[in-house]
Amino acid sequence: MRIPEGAFLMSIPAQDFRPALWKSVALYVGFALYSVGFFLPAVDQWKGWDCAWLALEYWHDDKVSPLVLFGGLINPLGVLYLLLAVLNAASKIRAVLATAMLVCILLTWFALDRMDAKVHVGHYFWIAGILLMLSPVIGDIPRLPAAKWLGVVGLIVITWLGIPRAISLTMHPATARDDFFYVVAWNFREPAICQKIDPSAIGRDDQREDHELTYLRSDCYRNIAAMLNAPALCENVRSAGMDRLWGSQVTKWNCRRQHYMWGTAWPADGQNFVKMMQAVGYGEKHLAEVVDNTNYKTYPTTDVYWNYFSYLANEDKTAARNDFLAHVTALN
Question: Whose CA, among 99, 182, 210, 221, lies 20 to 30 Å from 292?
Answer without folding.
Answer: 182
